[in-house]
TrEMBL record:
GO molecular function, one term: endonuclease activity
Keyword Acyltransferase: no
Protein name: Endonuclease
Region forming the signal peptide: none
InterPro entries assigned to the protein according to its UniProt record, in alphabetical order: Endo/exonu/phosph_ase_sf, Endo/exonuclease/phosphatase
Hydrolase listed as a keyword: yes
Keywords: Endonuclease, Hydrolase, Nuclease
Domain Endonuclease/exonuclease/phosphatase: 97-389
Gene3D superfamilies: Endonuclease/exonuclease/phosphatase
Length: 396
């Protein structure tokens, strides 16, 4: 009995010493967030002016401009499939599908008052995501369903109300709706080094190329540590989940190939692919393509870590359809975020869903509180909840 008591005392002393040692350590945190902001259009009907004298890879090849100014430029309106060979040498106008709705004369009666409220709503969410745990705003914010650089500038200006200076990285994609992905970042913490857009090549049943959102790749230094961020918005389930699955498999393969190529150069590379994947964590586009795991002790060099799968198994989700929650918004991490203890390591992921982001009444009670119900403005936020992950690093 005495030996047993002595062991208990020694163990207790060890725990106390260990706790005191940990109490002396200081840690720094970083929140990385993703948010599908749902159809964040400005109030101006937009079109793209395509300059067929440039390469499609040139950022100046396609410029989003007000439709009125485009139509008075004397250029022809291009209504066919985006065939770059046919467009070569021409300057044409390409209209967007939904821009007529998000207009003061459109079906949604979209105006500056509603738009500014949406900007305030979204920046409020930005400012509060992860703040309970870190006492700070996110260092990195991935977004999708933004129309153009105009709305990104307004989001950054909105963050100044919270005492934060953000900038953004964005490429105009060939998506027919005219919505893109982008990366916003705290300028005091992140320094971009390289940026690139990765295109997903799809074909429709007629054999023509079908355009979706590009994948944005940004390489940079987060608090001095090199990281790679991929921002995604994969093809939707329009036409049915299984029928549309090959499109998302194609998008997944583009990301996976790019991440694998970086790992071949640096096996300790810290990479994070985030976005609205339009698939759940257990879907083939995630599980089969990335070989994801959701337990830290299962992470090895030929796997990727997907903490969203654990939350999904617990019944959580980021959007609802027919009273069922899906977990389309995810973050997929390279092994170094789990296994490499130097620099930032993954701590936790969560869905940000405070009461004000949840519909409190009506047929969509319990769903994310969105800006519109059909064409009726409700003053909400988005049909998705944002997700965020917290990373920690010990201060030496």
């Amino acid at each position: 009995m005495k030996d047993f008591l002595m062991k208990i005392i020694i163990f207790s002393l060890f725990i106390n010493i260990f706790s005191e040692m940990n109490a002396q350590k200081s840690y720094k945190t970083a929140t990385i967030m993703f948010y599908n902001v749902e159809n964040l259009y400005d109030t101006i009907k937009s079109a793209d002016i395509i300059n067929g004298n440039l390469s499609p890879e040139d950022k100046r090849y396609q410029i989003s401009v007000p439709e009125d100014s485009a139509l008075t430029s004397g250029l022809e309106i291009y209504r066919g499939e985006l065939n770059f060979n046919k467009l070569k040498g021409k300057n044409v106008i390409r209209k967007h599908i939904l821009t007529d709705e998000f207009y003061y004369k459109g079906s949604k009666l979209w105006n500056s008052k509603k738009y500014n409220e949406k900007i305030r709503n979204i920046t409020k969410v930005f400012s509060e995501t992860g703040k309970t745990e870190t006492q700070s705003t996110p260092a990195i914010i991935g977004v999708c369903e933004i129309e153009n650089e105009h709305v990104l500038k307004d989001l950054c200006n909105g963050m100044k109300n919270y005492g934060k200076i953000y900038d953004f990285i964005h490429y105009n994609s060939f998506d027919a709706r005219g919505v893109d992905v982008a990366l916003l970042y705290d300028k005091t913490r992140f320094i971009p080094i390289n940026r690139k857009r990765l295109q997903v090549y799809l074909r429709n049943e007629a054999g023509y190329r079908e355009y979706t959102r590009d994948i944005l790749l940004v390489e940079g230094l987060l608090d001095g540590e090199k990281m790679y961020f991929f921002v995604n918005h994969w093809p939707s389930r329009l036409g049915g989940e299984q029928k549309s699955l090959p499109k998302r498999m194609a998008a997944a393969q583009v990301v996976k190939t790019a991440m694998d190529s970086i790992l071949k150069i640096n096996t300790s590379a810290k990479m994070l692919a985030m976005g609205d994947f339009n698939d759940d964590p257990n879907s083939p586009s995630i599980k089969k393509v990335f070989h994801t795991v959701f337990k830290k002790d299962q992470v090895k060099k030929d796997t990727y870590y997907n903490p969203a799968e654990y939350l999904f198994k617990k019944g959580m989700g980021t959007l609802a359809y027919k009273d069922t929650f899906n977990f389309f918004d995810q973050q997929i991490l390279s092994p170094a975020f789990v296994n490499n203890k130097d620099g930032y390591t993954f701590y936790k992921m969560n869905v940000f869903s405070p009461a004000y982001l949840v519909s409190q009444e009506g047929a969509k009670k319990g769903y994310p509180f969105r800006s519109f119900s059909g064409d009726n403005y409700t003053g909400g936020y988005s049909d998705h909840y944002p997700i965020y992950s917290i990373f920690v690093t010990e201060l030496k």
